[in-house]
Amino acid sequence: MTQIILASSSETRKALLNRLHLDYLAISPDIDESAKPHETAEQLAQRLSYEKALKIANHHPDAIVIGSDQVAYLTESPQQFIGKPYTEQGAIAQLQQQSGKVLHFATGLSVQCINQQFEHTCVVPFQAKFRELSNNEIQRYVSLDQPLHCAGSFKGESLGISLFEWLKGDDYTALMGLPMIQLCSILRKLDIQIP
């Protein structure tokens, strides 16, 4: 059976891929994730997911390699990408900035297998509208969920769901960083049985 490799060290992406009951390895691609001048969120997410998968695929040409990357931005500032806060203070500041606003996500996905001459890269969009959040709600949320390694400072699969008015998109898992509906469709093209 063909080896499957997730080009990521993200625990969230591993948890999502675990849903498929596939044997896989996770290898961090360790690439420069800096945006290029004038690159849109969609372009950046697509390029980084492609580069992550390609870096690992070059070392494992027989394997099916999955790369993914997510870029977030607010409607009013599409060139200002929102990253991971890393600290509680950073998470509080992000949520204060996002309160009452729509956060857009561009989640890139790239599946590559060099020996099969296969490459499929796409971007799955998703939107999340925050409620008007009080400072007490924000501080309580950050303390309870510790979303310090999540772009936008929330965990949609956890208590973070309570922060929103609505979510919009074709694939809820794109919000969490790995678009599973698209991934399943691509893996089936490579004769991976799901389910």
Automatic annotation (TrEMBL):
EC number: 3.6.1.9
Recorded superkingdom: Bacteria
Catalytic function, reaction form: a 2'-deoxyribonucleoside 5'-triphosphate + H2O = a 2'-deoxyribonucleoside 5'-phosphate + diphosphate + H(+); a ribonucleoside 5'-triphosphate + H2O = a ribonucleoside 5'-phosphate + diphosphate + H(+)
Top EC group: hydrolase
Keywords from the UniProt entry: Cytoplasm, Hydrolase, Nucleotide metabolism
Sequence similarity: Belongs to the Maf family.
Cited HAMAP family: Maf
Protein name: Nucleoside triphosphate pyrophosphatase
